[in-house]
Amino acid sequence: MNQSNIAWVTDSTATLSTEFIEKHNIYVVPLFVIFGETAYKENVEISSSEFYKKLASVNDLPKTSQPSPGEMLELFNEIKNKYKHVIAIHATGALTGAYSGAVSATKEAGVDAFVLDSQIGSFPLGKMVERAVALEQQGKTFEEIVTEIKTLPAKGRLFLTPGSLEQLHKGGRVTGSQAVFATLLNMKVVLKFHEGRAVLSDKVRSHKRAIAKMADYLEAEKNHVKEVTVLHADNLKEATQLKKELQTQHPQIIFSTTELSPVPGTHTGRGTVGLAWLGE
């Protein structure tokens, strides 16, 4: 058994730092992005920068996939011989198969596990993992940690202004046909996550107004937020400028920039900008 009684598992969309992963022995399940016949493990076999460079040079949009049931089972069989408990926190089960795969694999492996559907992904998912690990470091028991982290999905926020409505529509990751109409009308949209699904929250006439809408959402919740990231898909220049503007408006909040990993980037397209946080 390891010094820690709890094995921590998440997936590659969480965009956790290598330092954090290594320090806390986090098991990161890689999701796949597929160009033609070639599948790449995101953040393992293809970095975000490599992915967006490749995305710009191909005609056919890539696809995404989750690990096979056999791969998930192999992981949890390995873990059960080393740890007493498992806590797995995964990207929304409504859009990826990592959550349901972990639920099935932990049952088949016979491990004492709690699998949390974060109902979101990217930065808020990573922050859920960080908070959960912090609870263990505070001396909380497995049962106490599970009770506390069950409250986290309701606090996650992720807003995006997609770089490509065409990719969004083809990927089928947004409910309803509003993205099609927005494309026809040459409008900009803001997406938000609601009950684990990406839904269209706003349609506006300009990119500038879309950014302002996302800033309004932050303004409404600023008293319950300590840390915010500006998400982007191969759009660091705009993300950095937006971060600077928001930092001036909200000096009490810590801001950063985060590049969307390949799997979500496949669906939103290059040029995407967004805001994300995990409320207190």
Features:
Rossmann fold, 13 strands, 6-stranded mixed sheet, alpha/beta, 2 domains, 280 residues, Hypothetical Protein Tm841, Chain: A,domain 3
Distance from first to last alpha carbon: 33 Å
Structural class: alpha/beta
Spatially, the strands of the biggest sheet line up as 10-9-8-13-11-12
Tell me the name of the CATH class of the largest domain: Alpha Beta
Q: How many alpha or pi helices?
A: 11
Number of strands: 13
Low-confidence region ranges? none
Radius of gyration of CA atoms, rounded to a whole number: 19 Å
CATH architecture of the largest domain: 2-Layer Sandwich
Tally of separate domains: 2
| N-to-C SSE string, H for helix and E for strand | EHEEEHEHEHEHHEHHEEHEHEHE
Q: Name the average pLDDT.
A: 91
What is the fold-level CATH name, i.e. the topology of the largest domain? Hypothetical Protein Tm841, Chain: A,domain 3
The biggest beta sheet is recorded as: 6 strands, mixed
Shape: globular
Report the helical percentage. Answer: 40-55%
Strand content: 25-35%
